[in-house]
Amino acid sequence: MQHYLFVLIFVLLHGGQFVSANGRLEYVRHNSGNYEAKLYLNLSQTVINWEARFTFEFDIDGFMIHNPGSQIREQAGNVVVIGNAAQDQHGPGEWSIDFYVRYCCAMPQLEFAVYNGEDLNTDFIDPPPPTVRPTRPPLPDGDYHYEEVLGLSIEFYEAQRSGRLPESNRIMYRGDSFLDDKDGDIDLVGGYFDAGDHVKFGFPFAYFTTVLNWGIVDYKQGYESAGELQNALDAVKWSLDYFIKAHPSDFVFYGQTGDGGQDHGYWGRPEDWTLGARNSYKITQQQPGSELAGEAAAAFASGYLAFKDVNPTYASTLLNHATTLYDFANQFRGTYTDAIPAGGFYNSWSGYGDELGWAAAWLYRATNVTRYLDDVATHWQEFNLGERPLEFSWDDKKAGLQVLLARITNNQMYKDSAEAFCDYIINDVRRTPKGLVWLSEWGSLRHSSNVAFICLQAADVGIKPDVYRAFAKQQINYALGDGGRSFVVGFGVNPPKSPHHRSSSCPNRPSPCDYNNGMNNPGPNYQTLWGALVGGPGPNDDYVDDRGDYIKNEVATDYNAAFQGALAALQVLKDEGTLP
């Protein structure tokens, strides 16, 4: 981070007393067209209420304050008035006003600011030139700042949001999009874009939500240590709120909005979509989809566990949806791609048996109702769910089911299955010369992160903890820099700058964005897609940062899910002093 120090002399009214303070302005980062900064105040006494007026040299396109309990009271041209929304207090000690500025053309300098009626009377300094976030110094033992990458990963999910964005939106180049997503009178606005495109593919969408919930539930301490628990809950709530809309009745669930073929022919901002209203697709009793309904049930049940202590009413709603969708998946069996045109993008190669077992296991964990555990046993036999899978992914949940059951039942049969999978991955799977487990050319880092997360889970239940944790750390550290470069956008040494991703490739408004100046721009993406894990290298560690390479350089919401959970798990180990 770049620091600019100055002294602020002003007066704060506190219970009839005058309170002096000094402060500093810190530019956290500057991307093309926006920057983030913190105005730190070192308060000598407690301040109960506050209001600040910022005046910029030029008109700004957008301003956001990221302090809980604060709000923008007025914004016009180059002036913004902010303050606390409800009575709160700060100090004594250091406190900051965290703000984001979006601009179109000339970079707007903060000319002066007034705090509680007093002019700060200070010369403010321009933000630094556009750049990626400065890399923090490496840790003495060569490890990485997992907590920093975890926070960036959550920002990637914010960049993928569809619908009407909240005031807390931190991705300044993004705006409201696809506000007419619907099917008749069913509101389907919201949710997440799948990858570098703008389709909402429900099957991988529900999967990544389940896995993010899993990480929050089992590695909450890692999120708390990083100061990211609330952001993480906000990220999964964005999914779950959408899924509630997508499940308007017991035997209806919407599993896709947008057409993959049409969408992939469009390169531009989601806010500028020009191809008309999008179709939405659903499963019903007449055209069921057990993979989709089962995975959505797992997302709701794991969401219940994430929210049951912080928002019990909301959690109860999630559990109701989970139970209904599981019954739908189990009673009306069918392959979801028979109802929804996703087969060319997310075909269910493993069938729906793994999702039925997966959903039942999550419901057992959420409710402790034995009928769900009985159902797991039935599905286990019917679909041979104890066999050793080749991966853990949006398609094949068997490895996740096995280790989840080992965790919640302590049954040796499930432990043996989990151990067989991790031993296979560690001992038998091909590796690159630099040590990456290489399972598939499509998102090689996604696959290595997925198995790292599974083996961290296995270690937690006492299965070869030293071996499995060392393996997981090795795989995650490869993505962060041990492979010779960072594969996380905006982090570390030589990170990707040209991911295959539409909105971040677009220049600032009012410039248009299309294949010519977006996809085919020979330079880096105009916007930084903070925290996105790119697909990754080939089997010989070969990688080129090429926007046109959608195999190695696309990003996707499922890529970051287990990766983020593994970061939280490693952060817990680091905090405990047990990181290998």
Main sheet overview: 5 strands, antiparallel
Q: Give the amount of beta strand, in percent.
A: 15-25%
Q: What is the number of beta strands?
A: 17
Mean pLDDT: 90
| CATH class category label of the largest domain | Mainly Alpha
- Rounded to an integer in angstroms, the radius of gyration calculated over CA atoms is 24 Å
Q: Largest sheet, order of strands side by side?
A: 1-4-5-10-7
Q: Give the CA-based shape.
A: globular
Keywords:
signal, polysaccharide degradation, 5-stranded antiparallel beta sheet, Immunoglobulin-like, disordered N terminus, 580 residues, alpha+beta, 15% strand, cellulase activity, Glycosyltransferase
Description:
Residues 1-21 form the signal peptide. It catalyses: Endohydrolysis of (1->4)-beta-D-glucosidic linkages in cellulose, lichenin and cereal beta-D-glucans. One of its GO terms (molecular function) is cellulase activity. Residues 146-567 form the Glycoside hydrolase family domain. Its EC number is 3.2.1.4. It is a single chain. The protein has two domains: 2-119, Immunoglobulin-like (Sandwich), CATH 2.60.40; 146-576, Alpha/alpha barrel (Glycosyltransferase), CATH 1.50.10. The chain has a five-stranded antiparallel sheet with strand order 1-4-5-10-7, with no helix packed on it. The longest helix has 20 residues, at 312-331. Strand 2 and strand 3 form a beta hairpin. It has helices at 146-159, 202-218, 220-226, 229-246, 260-264, 290-307, 312-331, 343-346, 353-367, 370-382, 398-409, 412-428, 444-460, 465-482, 502-505, 515-519, 557-576, and strands at residues 2-5, 12-14, 17-19, 21-31, 34-43, 51-56, 62-65, 70-76, 79-84, 93-102, 110-115, 118-119, 182-183, 186-187, 200-201, 253-257, 280-283. The protein is globular. 51% of the residues are buried. The protein has 580 residues and is of the alpha+beta class. Helix 2 (202-218) runs antiparallel to helix 4 (229-246) and helix 4 crosses helix 6 (290-307). Helix content is 39%, strand content 15%. The chain contains 17 helices and 17 strands.
